[in-house]
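Hi all, long-time lurker, first post. I run a small reading group and we've been trying to get comfortable going from sequence to structure in the token notation. Rather than ask abstract questions, I figured I'd post a concrete chain and ask someone more experienced to write out its structure so we can walk through it together at our next meeting. Sequence below, copied exactly:
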Amino acid sequence: MCYWRREAKEYPFNRWLKQEGIKEYKIYVGYTFREYDRWKNIDKYNAIAPLVEWKWNEPDVQKYLKDNMMENKLYQHFERTGCAICQKQSMASKYNVYKYYNHQWEYMKNIENKLIQEKKKRGESISPCFSTDMFCEDMEKLFKKKDKQAIFDFEFEPIQDCFCKI
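-- Answer (accepted) --
Happy to help. Here is the structure in token form:
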């Protein structure tokens, strides 16, 4: 399960429900019809998935949002939205963070550098934080090289992003 979803959404929501004494409620889940297999494994006592019920997929949702001028601006650069520093996001998404959201990219590099320094102090092995096989510095070199060549082939990788096709 996505750490961010649990820590930033589920736990605070459950604390609020308990604090308010609310026992009867419904949660709207944003699964699309294509994600029916995920939906059928959820405890549906408190959950509703209108997109599944309406048999809507991503293109249907995008069209609805565009037609009603409600589209999130992040979709200009990302197929799905989530945490900018999620290690599960695709390389294409990481490239877009690097290219269009420099402050977030610098934040990722800063976190990774701090973690590397801590691991070195403790004598632990060092591994990338935001990728399975590349440090931010190496990704940045790759992105700069690809920028110069104007070649971006991220087609080889599966969709792996934080909403949350893990």
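A couple of things your group might point at:
Residues 102-122 form the longest helix (21 residues).
The radius of gyration is 19 Å.
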